[in-house]
Design goal:
By secondary structure, the protein is of the alpha/beta class. It has two domains: about 200 residues, Rossmann fold (3-Layer(aba) Sandwich), CATH 3.40.50.720; about 240 residues, Rossmann fold, CATH 3.40.50.720. It has 17 helices and 14 strands. The strands form two sheets. An eight-stranded mixed sheet has the order 3-2-1-4-5-6-7-8, sandwiched between helices. About 45% of the residues are buried.
Amino acid sequence: MKIAMVGSGYVGLVSGACFADFGHDVVCIDKDPGKIERLNAGQMPIYEPGLEELVVRNMEAGRLSFTTELASAISGADAIFIAVGTPSRRGDGHADLTFVFEVAAEVGENLQNRAVIVTKSTVPVGTGDEVERVITNSATNVEFAVASNPEFLREGAAIQDFKRPDRIVIGANDEWARDVLREVYRPLFLNRSPILFTSRRSAELIKYAANAFLATKITFINEMADLCEKVGGDVQDIARGIGLDNRIGSKFLHAGPGYGGSCFPKDTLALLKTSEDFDSPLRVVEAVSKANDNRKRAMGRKVIDALGDVPRGKRVAMLGLTFKPNTDDMRDAPSIAIAQALSDAGVDVVAYDPEGMEVAKPIMPDVEMAENPYAAAQGADAVVIVTEWDAFRALDLDRIRQALKAPVLVDLRNVYQPEEMRSKGFAYSSIGRA
């Protein structure tokens, strides 16, 4: 099948490359000529394990191409996916759908053959109705259908998630649109990936509901970690104990400095705004969003407390900046709030991250970047592990201790064991462990 993917960011690029790897003919479109030029040269705009190899292989096979010209790209396409950004709108927190509607209008103006237009961007419930209206106002005598096909990709594991998904959600009100998307995803039938067909509005809501629920699990275990520190429990034992219950499950029960990234913060906020618009309060989600914001600031205070009575003028080495490992994504990363809290307390910050430092520099201009973890620790008064990169799981602890002015290590991801750290001579603090 011929597929047009409008938007060559994280979702569009990963989805387009994977569709091409299935054997479909895919054209990815983006308005940024510089990005398209780099992609045609095999240079990735984002870091995602395995993506560069996947893109280059399918370009060489002639199944994947990139262009700025939407009109030619959608000509003859069976499915046209909209995969552009929907950031939080400034001022009110609603999802900004400007790019979605701009694409819809342009598709309508240039549509020449029967096609299914698929919103893959994360959009509030009812967006598909408006997309359909916009295209109807632009298109002339061309049959089309609008469907919703939300993505559930984890950054750092996106290719695996796309090719072996837990489920494929397709919201379509037209049977022939369902048939087209069934054919698009037919290669996944070999993996017995379940396809859930719903109404368009249900599909739009499933994406937000899933992210809000996962954010709730993270926030719950973080608050349990706080309680564990007060009463002498171990949050990792708590997580195992409840995670072995099949009704709960073990995923997303890892205590830490709070959730960040491109999805959970903006999606929970957008869902709350939708609930307000329809006068249907989501009190649990509201509490989750507030608790997570407070969590990040509390982690900054935790590091400051570890520095002793007079933090001003001291130096802290932060290991990890991105919101999670195996990505260069800094969006709503806990490290930003932690670094700001340290700076506000008069603490100098030096950091190292395996992939995120170039993206972090303009966001954190006052943070000094180091070439490796040991250079970051050199002369610092404390080290704090913010992101659990594999590179930080087996540090040379003797070398770290010797580089530090004082043997203080704050582990916000529980990478190490308290007994081991005490034996190495560290003043060690972690999350949810006495």
